[in-house]
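To: structure desk
From: M.T.
Subject: fold request, one chain
Message: Could you run this one when you get a chance? Sequence is below, nothing fancy, just the single chain.
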Amino acid sequence: MRLSPLDIRQQQFTVRMFRGLDPQEVEAFLEDVAEEYEQILKENVTLKEQLGVHEERARRVNEVERMLTETLVTTQKLTEEMKEGARRDGQLLVREAEMQGEKVMEAARAEEAKIRSGIKDLQRTHRQLLEDLKSTVERYQRFLSGEPDLEAGEADAQA
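Reply: Done. Structure tokens follow.
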């Protein structure tokens, strides 16, 4: 059975003749109890309201915490994806640079081979020109010294 402050105030007691209670004391006591009970009920209502407010705050804090956790996880995933993307891009750039370097080296080797071939051709031409020059100088020396030109004689004999 739930009592209200009004129930306490309106409570009636039967008075006995010989051993009865002083009705004014009983009524004063009941009034004090009713006032205390009323205060407790008001305090209970206030505490329930405060509890509701605190529960709502706790719910919001939990929601914010959940959102922050989700954001943190998402940020970490995004960071890892960005790192992996940067790593892949870096590897791709290195591979492209290596391929470009190989092309440059291949072109340089081809150019070197061309230059070496040109040098050999120039060396052959140089030797040939020296031999031709020596031969010409020898012919002129023989011509000047009065010796017959064997090459000219051989050329005439073959003709």
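Reply (cont.): The radius of gyration is 61 Å. Let me know if you need anything else for the meeting.
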